[in-house]
């Protein structure tokens, strides 16, 4: 475990009266599978259903219409099920798509992206990044050009100040033409 991740875990377990485990610690392959089951099979869990419904109904409006191609980035991509709506819409507008899914669970991510490669074949070039957001964003800095960056749902697992810091970090990979 990297020193900063280890320190984050130690900090949570030794904090004052409210000890905690950082949310990323729960998302190994098994944790990711359990989370997917929990958010898709639990009839009372509305967030995933709401996000999926919003994408189904409004993906054409969400993606800006521009005269150039996007590279797609998905932070916290999980099984990529919601991302497929965006992939499908972008492939209606551009011949090929480069896709960089970022997820903390490398093994879970590789399984998810294998399915995407099989389904989309040569029209989708998938480069999975098994890393936390900070490491993923650092890797993404080497790729230039316009990016459509998704951060669907996984943001709610972070404290507010971490959300703000992560948005600032994400802005460093946003490049123009």
Q: Which key features would you list for this structure?
A:
177 residues; 7 helices; alpha/beta; 49% helix
Unreliable spans: none
Q: Give the number of DSSP strands.
A: 5
Count of DSSP helices?
7
Mean pLDDT: 85
* Anisotropy-based shape: globular
Radius of gyration: 17 Å
Order of helices and strands: HHHEHEHEEHEH
Assess the beta-strand content as a share of residues. 5-15%
Largest sheet: 5 strands, parallel
Percent in helix:
40-55%
Q: Would you tell me the structural class of the helices and strands? A: alpha/beta
Q: N-to-C terminal Cα separation, in Å?
A: 37 Å
What does this structure look like?
It is globular, with a radius of gyration of 17 Å. The chain has helices at residues 3-13, 29-41, 47-62, 83-93, 106-120, 133-140, 160-171; strands at residues 71-75, 97-103, 124-126, 129-130, 147-150. The chain contains seven helices and five strands. Strands 1, 2, 3, 4 and 5 form a five-stranded parallel β-sheet that branches. The protein is an alpha/beta fold. The model has no long low-confidence stretch (mean pLDDT 85). Helix 4 links the parallel strand 1 (71-75) and strand 2 (97-103).
Topology:
Elements lengths: L2 H11 L15 H13 L5 H16 L8 E5 L7 H11 L3 E7 L2 H15 L3 E3 L2 E2 L2 H8 L6 E4 L9 H12 L6
Parallel strand pairs: 1-2, 1-5, 2-3, 2-4
Helix pairs in contact: 2-5
């Amino acid at each position: 475990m990297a020193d900063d991740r280890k320190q984050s875990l130690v900090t949570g377990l030794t904090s004052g009266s409210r000890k905690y485990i950082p949310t990323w610690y729960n998302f190994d392959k098994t944790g990711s599978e359990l989370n997917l089951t929990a958010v898709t099979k639990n009839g009372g869990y509305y967030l995933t259903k709401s996000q999926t419904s919003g994408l189904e109904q409004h993906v054409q409006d969400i993606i800006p219409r521009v005269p150039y191609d996007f590279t797609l980035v998905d932070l916290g991509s999980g099984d990529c099920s919601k991302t497929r709506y965006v992939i499908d819409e972008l492939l209606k507008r551009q011949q090929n798509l480069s896709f960089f899914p970022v997820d903390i669970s490398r093994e879970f991510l590789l399984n998810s992206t294998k399915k995407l490669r099989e389904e989309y074949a040569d029209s989708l070039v998938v480069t999975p990044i098994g890393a936390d957001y900070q490491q993923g964003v650092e890797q993404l800095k080497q790729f230039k050009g316009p990016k459509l960056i998704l951060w669907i749902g996984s943001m709610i697992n972070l404290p507010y100040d971490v959300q703000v810091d992560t948005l600032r970090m994400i802005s460093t990979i946003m490049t123009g033409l």
